[in-house]
Amino acid sequence: MQRPALRDTVMPMPLDRTFSVAPMMDWTTRDYRVFARTLTRRALLYTEMVTTGAILHGSPRERFLGHDDVEHPLALQLGGSDAGELAECAAIAEAWGYDEVNLNVGCPSDRVQNNLIGACLMGHPHKVADAVRAMRDAVSIPVTVKCRIGIDDQDEDADLSRFIDIVADAGCDTFIVHARKAWLEGLSPKENRDIPPLNYPRVHRLKASRPDLHIGINGGLKTLDACREQLERVDSVMVGREAYQNPWLLAGVDAALYGAPGPAASRHAAARALRPYIARRLEEGARLNHVTRHLLGLFQGQPGGRKFRRHLSENAHRDGAGLAVFDDALGLVPEREAASAA
Fold it and tell me: Which residue numbers delimit the DUS-like FMN-binding domain (predicted)?
């Protein structure tokens, strides 16, 4: 079931991968995604990774697949390796209204490796190809792959090219490439986000060698200027942690990368636009901090920003915390007539 939220007169935007927010476990929840839509209409949003097992055997399915109409364009990222299960889940995703299904071939977690999910699949390109082929046969929406430039001792040139060629031959024409290797032995998932060096030129060479494919780049991007630079060499950019920890970055996306006005005139306006959604979530039984934890970085670097963050951190989790806590936190930040998306 899908329920509307934050409806206005603007029709949902078509899928455009120029800029997307990366799938991030525990972060890109439906509450975050609705908040993101107060800042950008055009960015492509991704769910957290959802495993095939959760969709096929978890209950209720709403817990894993539920979303609001306002979140579109929206992609579901799947974790799995069994072609039949992935095809079934892709069909379910399409029935639930998702605009794209993305296969995770980049997560370095030990937990998912044990189930042949994530980055370890870069060592099994034919299995990925089988999965892509089965998913494409099951749905009419795009099936895409998010991967790394390699794992462990793989050759970043030869092995990445081989992986892309095999999976592309199965019908995948869109790859979002995290421009770091994943070291499955010796580094933790957290260390894998920072320690392996970024290798943007390798992704640029991939695009140059496969101009027929849509090649997106992910990893370490923190500014819209950096995104614009990358878009001169690749087809799209994906931003992860910066889009979450400094969400006001998203307020500049529509104008800077799509030439269209964004929905937020100011940080306060974005926060107020979310207020009806927060009220609804509270009525459903959610705790205030389930939603407001995603807003803690909204006033980063602004006068009163630390007070806003502290007030929510100390009070939003309390029993009975309601909109008054949210309003009081907003009142700690001086409001300005306008704000830039710098």
Answer: 21-321
- How far apart, in whole angstroms, are the C-alpha atoms of residue 171 and residue 15? 19
Helix (H, G, I), strand (E, B) or coil at 313: helix
Task: Answer yes or no: is 23 a known binding residue.
Answer: yes
Amino acid at 288: L
Radius of gyration of the CA atoms of the chain, in A: 20
Interval 287-335: pLDDT, tens: 999 999 999 999 999 999 999 999 999 999 999 999 999 999 999 999 8
Q: 122 a known binding residue? A: no
DSSP string, 220-260: S--SHHHHHHHTTTSSEEEE-HHHHHSGGGGGGHHHHHHSS
On whether 241 is known to bind a ligand per the annotation, the reply is yes
Length of the chain: 342
Helices (H) and strands (E) in the chain, counts: 15, 8
Please, what is the end-to-end C-alpha distance for the chain in angstroms? 37
Spell out the domains of the chain, with CATH numbers in brackets. Answer: 19-258 (3.20.20.70), 267-331 (1.20.120)
Active site positions, annotated: 107
